[in-house]
Amino acid sequence: MSSLVQSVDWLAIAPPTITAVVGLVVLVADLFVSETRKPLLGWLSVAGLAAATLMLLPLLDADRSTFCLVGDEGVCSYTADRFTLVIQFLVLGGALLAALLSVTALKDDSKRLPEGEYWFLFLSSAAGAALLPASRDLATLVVALEVASLPAFALVGLRHGDRKSSEAALKFFLSSVTATAVSLLGISFVYAATGTLHLTLVAERVQNVDGQLHTLTQTGVVLTLVGFAFKTAAVPFHFWVPDTYVGAPLPIAAYLSVIGKAVGFSGLILVTVVALPSYAHVWGPALAVLAALTMTVGNVGALAQQATRAYSAVRLLAWSSVGQAGYLLVPIAAAAYSGDAEKSIGSTVAYALMYGAVNLGAFAVAALVGRAHRLNRVADYRGLYAASPLTALLLGFFLLCLAGLPPGIIGLFAKVTVFSAAVDAGLGWLAVVMAVNVVIALVYYLRWTALLFRAPEGEPVKHRLPAPLTAALALTGVLGVALSGAPQLVLRFTGTGLF
Known about the structure:
Elements: H1 14-29, H2 39-54, E1 64-69, E2 72-80, H3 82-108, H4 115-131, H5 138-156, H6 163-194, H7 199-205, H8 214-231, H9 241-247, H10 250-275, H11 280-304, H12 313-334, H13 341-372, H14 384-387, H15 389-403, H16 409-424, H17 428-452, H18 467-485, H19 488-493
Antiparallel strand pairs: 1-2
Helix pairs in contact: 1-2, 1-4, 2-3, 2-4, 3-4, 3-10, 3-13, 3-18, 4-5, 5-6, 5-10, 6-8, 6-9, 7-10, 8-10, 9-10, 9-12, 10-12, 10-13, 11-12, 11-17, 12-13, 12-16, 12-17, 13-15, 13-16, 13-18, 15-16, 15-17, 16-17, 16-18
Family: Belongs to the complex I subunit 2 family.
Protein name: NADH-quinone oxidoreductase subunit N
Pfam family, one: Proton_antipo_M
């Protein structure tokens, strides 16, 4: 009896495999390493993520696929094309930066954050997140989604004896489990109608389903979209975000804000644009409305945080991330109306890369300020320039990038790219909604930026920069400045290769 799949292409699957293997090594090593040597586990994890990221380089030359059906090499479960590599770069690079933040956080809070368990869960989640963009069948997609999500629940609630942490983990868990259940129900309907789980075969067969199964198929498409809307924190499925970010250890909040979004959006792109292009008339309008609601609720929510002096910087960044999710949804919705879906998806990926770099940079500064101010209020950033000029300038630059203002040229470039995708697709009303939201966002980003340069109330607090935090700030700063100098490189890098 012949095998159902071809031989494994180990080079193609190297990035998620290395991450998973290092996670297992860390878990076993934790049993034998003394308490004084536990920090070595963190540096081993950082090295593993760096190695996994470097393994993307040999894959740049040509598309590679593995776990293909015998007799049909075009139908595979794992494909390393340009889209996969760009999202894996975002996931693994973002995880590497979050790991650098984690090294300092674990050193400061080692009594309540067990290092071995932390790093094993962190690497397991990163491995699932790296697997997801390469998934080309619905079963692998769901497995990757859960491998990325389940360890994240535990990471959010890992801080011992912290009520906020436990509450955040519970909210995150309940919302994510609901999303998974809804997605699985939708996928089962699609499978019942098409008889296959492979995305390319679903795209072919879903156009010719029996008339009696038409309603079942439409229901499956809608339920699958609803499930992924939970994962992307789109409104009205965003309610878990602010409390989860505030209750989680700060590096995990940073991780969720970038890698969590990359997972949700890459899954959404694969399901809609690759598997269900013939149902664009269903998911296109739905995503356009979701984009408008998400960016509006996110930005208004962030603006409302400034009603009190004690509002948290992390909570503000959480609401900001909801607003940014709305911008990320715009080009995916535009792909349903545009004649060039690849260009539209490239806009989403380009925006995600920009957002990932500068948002992780903002969280790195928040991690630094949080070491001296436990509550990490935005008011604690007043006079940061007097205490730490370079750090204040970096945070100001990151906030201006998120706002889309010079000198944050990469932020402006990304917003113009998304805006043009909406206009080219004939979604003028959505472009207007986006323009209004950009203006709303300017208010809270500029208020925070101005606060950095105001005179401090009392003696400025000196912030000592540990080496891992310095490395994270340097990497995000250099990347943001370099891309602002040559923003066209982002679009050139993000040619998706999905079509």
